[in-house]
């Protein structure tokens, strides 16, 4: 059944208190719930959500058992008819039995390696007890946990703890998706934080005994986040404790449950020998993300799940700002744009396109997407650019003031900007309601010292949305003089019509236009630029994003030419050499510029140009260009490789990580011509996982990875997080013709614990990231993936549905591949009892072919 935004109705009861009493047992946990309810509309039936697996043991209204005919269970619903309810306030008490050990979907209460934990967002609470499982029903929770396990945690503040029983009280009203409970044999890394107004907060990161030394970085990240939210947004923490728990089985990255964040262990645990620089950066940003939800998500939550981007877009935007402040803002922006293009543009240009605020869905878990999260954040970045920093600050203060304690909507959000700044946002709102990536064509005219920039915007149709009216698009532009100096600083042009022009007067010579600085809008900018002008921008642009982008465009033009049988010029090779020789330029920036676009990105570009991408030709083209760069610049790359070593003990800070990033970018290229010699040495001597993984990737591409793989297995065979990398890198870096065979062999291993989401994603996601391997022309990559999706769907629908996006670009390939992909998708669709999650995804993808 499809859910529609337009059907929203408030719940006809109010809920003023929830009391839970949970007696834990792996196979038979008992949950007693008391809900204090008041009818708001006479004659309303009380309709509660509750999974079909809940075993109802008792139900009373004000202590009395209703007539059995007044209690109706139908599917995922339990109804107590109005006739059985008082007109005024009453207490509904229920007791249910549940089986956490049997919960392989990791939604609701489940067991992960002996730890009881919960995941309730979006609709998991209905698998714990009967309840109004919707985010606009908010109340205080009092929770009693009974278990012999030593650590018993829930939301809010601890009330009492005795052997076998703990009580918690959360004074802040919240929807049930923010409920959490954890029980297990855990140890804490502890610290404290004193808020601006003097509240001393006890901080704990709970891990399995023996993992304490890998939790310090997460703790430091938490402390930085708490400080930053006070300094930048004026937001303080509001409870006496803040707990974070790391669990091994987790469907997503992490969850912002009030006062008790639960994390996928890969986003908490890190040590130099086991985690890469990228892992450290990601841990810091996800710890921040979940912490920031305390205000943007928890104190102000969403009225309904269509509004998901209200909390996710804003919280991603905030965590991006945090990372920019902690590290290099320029590098962070480029990384974010790369990720946006790889995941969100891909989504927006394919069968799964949807707006940041969708207006219908079948399964909400299918909408925790790059569009809701990352495009949702981009939309806020544009808003900030349009109203300015002061306008943004005023609007946010008003948002927190006006909506604290509310379950709010995108309309509420836009209204605070209108009220705080006086700006009408009716047209801007289209960014929230319309799907698709706008294409903006820019052209230049030069006459008598006047430059005219003309723009034309259009957005291609997306499933269910054919008409795409013009949007407000901020385009940041600067002008460079013939010598490369900036003759006009950044100016934001606001597009609001289908076509528009802007003049720049009083110029003494024709300038070079640096456009879409800072990636000021999530669009595709098309302009006719020759390689010489791009090379000029790569050499001189003062805006780091635009500078990087010029290099990217040069690389893509060389790669698409090579992949379609042409002869690429040497412009890119020469320019990139000049750039990486700039010793004073941030090594991280140089590394980002030196890394060639991936095969998927090249395929996307070709498809965009109206061609059918050939994965094998793309692979060959990219390999050839890498080899040519390496040969052309061998002495330079070799010098960089030697100079960019980081002396002393490993530290994950941005400056050290930047040096390593450039060093391994050089290594990757040198590996194309040195037979893997440097990589082999580095793998043996490097004391950190960043360099070891980079070296391993080089060796695997050359087919020389076996000894290094054996060494890692020997050293880290019992470390799940390292073994996840071990699985994924083999599938990802295998030569394309071997990729499916490598993945199949890995899937046969005893330690391919496929029910663990991280391990499953490592292998299947690794193969999907091997572009030419996954898209093997014989269809073997598709068939292998389909087999595993079918198997996973019966166990964990969320994971299967999410991984099915491996197929989302299928319509753009050749007839042979399309036939294989369609067959694989249809085979999945034909499975009896397929989950709603996977069915929705697969049918949307099939419909596009
Ligand atoms: N709110 C969480 C976050 O953004 C994501 C949880 C989503 N979980 C899910 N099963 N859909 O960090
Ligand atoms: Zn989030």
Question: What percentage of residues falls in helices of 4 or more residues?
Answer: 40-55%
Instruction: List cofactors, ions and other ligands.
Output: arginine, zinc ion
Major sheet: arrangement of strands: 5-8-3-2-11-14-13
What's the β-strand tally? 30
Organism: Paracoccus rhizosphaerae
EC number: 3.4.11.2
Domain Peptidase M1 alanyl aminopeptidase Ig-like fold: 436-527
Family: Belongs to the peptidase M1 family.
Notes on the structure:
With 849 residues, the protein is of the alpha+beta class. Helices cover 41% and strands 21% of the residues. It has a 7-stranded mixed β-sheet, with no helix packed on it. Strands 16-17-18-20-19 form a 5-stranded mixed β-sheet, with helices on one face. Helix 14 packs antiparallel against helix 15 and helix 19 (720-733) packs antiparallel against helix 20. It is globular. The two termini are 23 Å apart. The mean pLDDT is 98. The structure holds arginine and zinc ion (ZN).
Structural topology:
Elements: E1 3-4, E2 13-23, E3 29-39, E4 46-49, E5 55-61, E6 71-74, E7 77-80, E8 90-98, E9 108-112, E10 115-119, E11 139-146, E12 151-154, E13 157-162, E14 165-174, E15 181-184, E16 187-194, E17 200-207, H1 216-233, E18 241-247, E19 254-255, E20 260-264, H2 277-292, E21 301-302, H3 308-326, H4 329-348, E22 360-361, H5 370-403, E23 407-408, H6 410-421, H7 430-433, E24 439-447, E25 450-458, E26 473-480, E27 486-495, E28 499-504, E29 512-515, E30 524-526, H8 531-540, H9 544-563, H10 571-580, H11 587-594, H12 599-608, H13 615-632, H14 634-643, H15 654-670, H16 677-685, H17 689-701, H18 706-716, H19 720-733, H20 736-747, H21 757-768, H22 771-774, H23 780-793, H24 797-803, H25 815-829, H26 836-847
Parallel strand pairs: 2-11, 17-18, 18-20, 21-23, 24-30
Antiparallel strand pairs: 1-22, 2-3, 3-8, 4-7, 5-8, 6-7, 9-10, 11-14, 12-15, 13-14, 16-17, 19-20, 24-25, 25-28, 26-27, 26-29
This protein binds arginine and zinc ion.
